[in-house]
Specification:
Elements: E1 5-7, E2 10-12, E3 19-21, H1 30-35, E4 36-41, H2 50-53, H3 83-102, H4 113-118, E5 126-127, E6 129-130, E7 137-139, E8 148-149, E9 152-155, E10 161-166, E11 170-176, E12 182-187, H5 189-193, H6 196-203, E13 211-215, E14 225-226, H7 228-237, E15 245-247, E16 253-255, H8 257-267, E17 272-275, E18 299-305
């Protein structure tokens, strides 16, 4: 079974684990690696040392039936899953993120309510969005308890994580090369066609030439079938995007979200782009997929300055 392993309070994130550290593109930029952390989650179960993740305050999530639509690490509150289980998963994600920043034991036993209230590990430091497949971008200066409707977020604040949920759509994470400004984009085809990447870069203070991009797992070009109207909408904007579509005998097209987003980024001036092109549709054990299972959970891609 795939595992997320804790050894002497050090989190080891493997490719086949609940959490995966984002690898930024070459050339490796020291300032970026020292100031920004980013994680990609999967649907794989969390298997770790119980004394680090579980105590009276925060028990481990329940073990879902293997046939459940939401097993094992669903982070979407809007998909019909048990709300308390999702909140526990979100809390464990939050602790994992800030454990890597603070290099402290995960979920330490807090002895009184005052300590719990003041501990950065006891509260949610991740900003979630109500994603609607549009092109609205918000700049976050502090964590909001109200649900924010947008498909991209930007921050220049430390210790404030930006999260994007996906289950076939393309997660895009951006950072200034010096780690001074970060952004997270929900890159479904509708948002990409609506110009979500340009809208985000326009709102950032960073010059596109100083921006580093990471594109995460999404539905792959062998599985993502769309109609002619989708292809035409992109080609009307840029004829070069025709290379992101392959026609099928049925008259439909197979679309390549990684190609489309990478081309859009580079046309806008972002030259350093890393891709992690695993297909969410074809990797059933590892990823949720809305196209494969309409009732399903959500993964998250999270980026944070520290």
């Amino acid at each position: 079974m795939a595992k997320t392993i804790i050894d002497n309070n050090k989190l080891i994130l493997n490719s086949d684990s609940t959490f995966k550290l984002v690898n930024w593109p070459e050339p490796k930029i020291k300032a970026l690696n020292e100031k920004v952390i980013a994680l990609q989650t999967t649907r794989l179960p969390l298997t770790t040392a119980p004394h680090l993740f579980s105590n009276k305050l925060n028990p481990l999530p329940k073990v879902y039936d293997k046939n459940s639509s939401y097993d094992h690490f669903n982070l979407g509150l809007h998909v019909g899953d048990n709300e308390e289980s999702v909140k526990v998963n979100r809390h464990l994600l939050n602790q994992t993120l800030f454990h890597n920043i603070n290099n402290k034991p995960i979920n330490p036993e807090l002895k009184n309510s005052k300590l719990r209230k003041n501990s950065s590990l006891a509260v949610n430091n991740i900003q979630w969005l109500n994603q609607v497949h549009g092109n609205k971008v918000v700049t976050i200066s502090r964590l909001s308890t109200k649900l924010i409707t947008a498909d991209a977020s930007i921050t220049r604040q430390k210790h404030l994580g930006l999260a994007i949920m996906t289950a076939d759509c393309l997660p895009i994470l951006l950072s200034h090369r010096d780690g001074d400004e970060i952004a997270a984009i929900h890159g479904g085809w509708r948002s990409l066609e609506a110009g979500i990447i340009k809208a985000t870069l326009d709102e950032m203070l960073s010059s596109p030439g100083d921006v580093i991009a990471w594109l995460g797992p999404c539905i792959g070009p062998q599985a993502f079938q769309v109609g002619k109207e989708v292809r035409d909408a992109f080609i009307c904007q840029d004829s070069n995007l025709a290379n992101g579509f392959i026609k099928q005998q049925s008259g439909k097209y197979l679309a390549n979200l990684h190609f489309i987003a990478t081309h859009q980024l580079r046309i806008l001036g972002v030259q350093y782009v890393a891709t992690y092109p695993e297909c969410t549709f074809n990797n059933e054990n590892k990823y949720y997929s809305y196209r494969r299972n309409a009732i399903t959970g959500r993964m998250a891609s999270v980026i944070c300055k520290y």
